[in-house]
Amino acid sequence: MEIKIGVQNVGREIVLESVQDADSVAKVVQEAITSGNELRLKDDKGRLIIVPGTALAYVEIGAEEVRRVGFGQF
């Protein structure tokens, strides 16, 4: 799923693909915001993204979608 992270006072957002489900991402984001600790997420390539919880502007969690196989949809 695609996750977009907005950071305060930064013009660009952080975009990553993650294999985590939406509920677990939302839980980690909520913990980072309420505690003020950093937000730690891993992307689908195993890279670790760390953002200070106090600097978060927004987090957009994309819909979980099943990858389709084939050439066309009817």
Describe what you observe in this structure.
- This protein has one helix at residues 22-35, and strands spanning 2-7, 14-17, 38-42, 48-52, 56-61.
- By secondary structure, the protein is of the alpha+beta class.
- The strands form two sheets. The chain has a three-stranded antiparallel beta sheet, with helices on one face. A two-stranded antiparallel sheet has the order 3-4.
- The mean pLDDT is 88.
Low-confidence stretches: none
Helix content: 10-25%
How many β-strand stretches? 5
Class by SSE composition: alpha+beta
What is the number of helical segments per DSSP (H or I, 4+ residues)?
A: 1
Structural Rg: 14 Å
Q: What is the N-to-C order of secondary-structure elements (H for helix, E for strand)?
A: EEHEEE
Q: What proportion of the residues form beta strands (DSSP E)?
A: 35-45%
Mean pLDDT score: 88
What order do the strands of the largest sheet run in, or round the barrel if closed? Answer: 2-1-5
> What would you call the quaternary organization?
single chain
Shape: elongated
Query: Span between N and C termini?
Result: 24 Å
Largest sheet: 3 strands, antiparallel
